[in-house]
Amino acid sequence: MTNQLKGKSAIITGAGSGIGKGIAQAFVDAEASVILVDINQKKLVDTKKDLEAINSKVSVYTFTADLSKSSSYKEVVEESVHKLGTVDILVNCAGIYPSTPALDITEDEWDQLFDLNLKGYFFLCQNVAKQMVKQDTGGSIINITSTASEVARPGVAHYCASKSGVKMMTQVLALEWAEYGIRINALGPGLVETDTLLNTLSTEKAKQEHVEKLSYCPMGRTALTEEIASGVLFFASDSSMYATGQTLFIDGGYSAGRFFKNKNK
Question: What would the pLDDT profile of 176-213 be if each residue is shown by its tens digit?
């Protein structure tokens, strides 16, 4: 899908590492100009260098922001318009994933997660949509949700609830904003091979738990970031011009139903 986004400008949040960085790499390869948003400035600088090495012909900017803070939403859009001229695409990818038993979740932890994972998504969508309406050119918004929006997991009640909220919010916004030519879809990854995931596999117990998780996935492996990025690229491009309000799960079949490998084979 090289050149699919030529001439387009995109905001990508959570772009300093992991899935967000993989999406940014795919967008730059597809010749989109991008503004990378993350709370970690150092990671943003490193990502910018990597992207410019991939394609020096497109513009790559960075903006450090805490997207759990209400003051950041308008600032991100204003900075994007200042640097890129227009906003054609938004990819909401920033998020946190604490694991805490439901009996132990505090109000502060709940609020911190929802402020970023759901509230942050909504108000950045809203501010970007206002800019797209002003431009009168339509646009595409892609929210990164999770298989946790579809399949319950113990220990992450707040995360599952936030990602389910993103999925339904995406559908409502698709209904409201179609008249402005704004398409909004969601993409739900399963387990993805990121540095964050690999760093958790430092003990034999962690490795064993990871293997057990993969046993529930029909394809039996983690996704690569570029495989997730390809789905986002589809929603961002003209290839999906008639798609809105949809959630695409790229998870190796995990959300399709319960699957258990026969360990005796």
Answer: 999 999 999 999 998 888 777 667 667 887 788 778 88
Block residue for tokens 């929210």: 143
Q: Give the three-state DSSP class for 205.
A: helix
End-to-end CA distance of the chain: 40
Contact 62, 44 (CB under 8 A): yes
Euclidean distance between CA atoms 233 and 185, whole angstroms: 12
Q: Measured between alpha carbons, how far is 40 from 61 in angstroms, rounded to an integer?
A: 14
Residue matched to tokens 């600088």: 45
- What values do phi and psi take at 91, rounded to 5? -120, 110
CA angle 120, 125, 127 (to 5 degrees): 100
Query: Which residue's structure tokens are 């604490």?
Result: 98
Residue 54: count other Cβ atoms within 10 Å of its Cβ.
13
> Which pair of tokens denotes residue 103?
């009996």
CATH homologous superfamily, domain 9-191+225-252: NAD(P)-binding Rossmann-like Domain (3.40.50.720)
Question: Given a cut of 70, is residue 145 above it in pLDDT?
Answer: yes
Active-site annotation holds for 159: yes
Q: 178 vs 153, 166, 184, 189, 245, CA distance in Å? A: 33, 18, 9, 25, 9
pLDDT above 90: residue 222: no
The count of C-alpha atoms lying within 13 angstroms of the C-alpha of 141, restricted to the half-sphere facing its C-beta, is 33
Which residue in 61, 159, 216, 254 is the catalytic one? 159
CA–CA distance from 6 to each of 32, 33, 59 (Å)?
5, 8, 11
Report the candidate in 56, 78, 85, 77 with the shortest Cα–Cα distance to residue 13: 77
Query: For 163-177, what is the mean pLDDT?
Result: 98
Q: What is the pTM of this model?
A: 0.93
- Whether 219 contacts 190, CB under 8 Å: no
